[in-house]
Amino acid sequence: MDSERRENPSLFLVVALATLALLLLFTALHAYLRLGGAPAVGSRWIKEMMLLKGRAADSLTGNRLLVVGGSSAMFGVLAQTLGEETGLPAANLALHNNISPDYLFDWTKRHVRRGDTLLLALEYNYYAYQGIPDMQTVDFVLSLDGGYFRKLPWPERLVYSGALAMDRLKGVMTSPLRRAARDPFEVNPIPRGQTAYQPYSFNRLGDQTWDQIPLHTRHLAHFFAPDFSRARLPSRGTEAIVELARWSRENGVRLIAAYPPFMRFALHDQPRQRRYFDAIDAFYKELGIPLVGSPDDFRYPPESFFDTDYHLHLPAARDHSRKLGRLLKARLDQGT
Predict the structure, then answer these.
(1) What is the pTM of this model?
(2) How far is CA 182 from the centre of its chain?
(3) N or C: which terminus of the chain carries fewer CB neighbours within 10 A?
């Protein structure tokens, strides 16, 4: 009995310290959100790009064609070309591939109107997304979009909080940005540089305009074929698409999907790899969403890309967008 009494204070101390640590964590997180955060450079350029792309979409009138996707569509799909091929006013809302589908679709909805057509040109990894946000999404949301964070259910808030590195929490407390203007980019703008990853590379329709061909040769040796044989559907990614489809039906928005531009690898000709593509096709058929083209329609040689197996350089993006636009026009003419 005496030994149990001696152990109880230690247990109580452990519980008390753990509770205190959680309280401190959430207090710091609350302050982080209220103060606007100290966004990393990777988050800041995405925010500026989103502001530009949102304005591009909002400025168009009539029933619009809006491109939705990750960086394969950001670099590889040109809204201007799609508009020329389809006759619809078009804008490119594609963001970074590391942004989670949940956040991508939430942000997209803010710029959608009844009568619009959304073209989903998602990378293959979106379909296998398991609900654990990338650190870039975590940094971006907690630094620059606290409103989205506050809409999340508590379990997902805990996921975001747990993923946030402690040095980001510590750094925000001493960041000069927290005492500055509401828009952090007015205080510390992103410098112009020789890179495609900057907001100055996009035009009035949200299209990438910077020519990346000088970059592509130095990266060609680093490409390797991703293994899709273990990817499984359904996933949290497909659940997000199902929810977007439901929202689109309720709000008078047409949804059309397309395979992404992707590097041609011999590995993906194997039957066990092709099953993943077949699963994506079956998923859209079951959901009743038209799917433009096939994976092979949009597989391109390595010299068409500049730094990843999804990022077409500008001349290749023009060719891809013309092909995609013609296939899309045929679908639209069918009344789908």
Answers:
(1) 0.83
(2) 24
(3) N
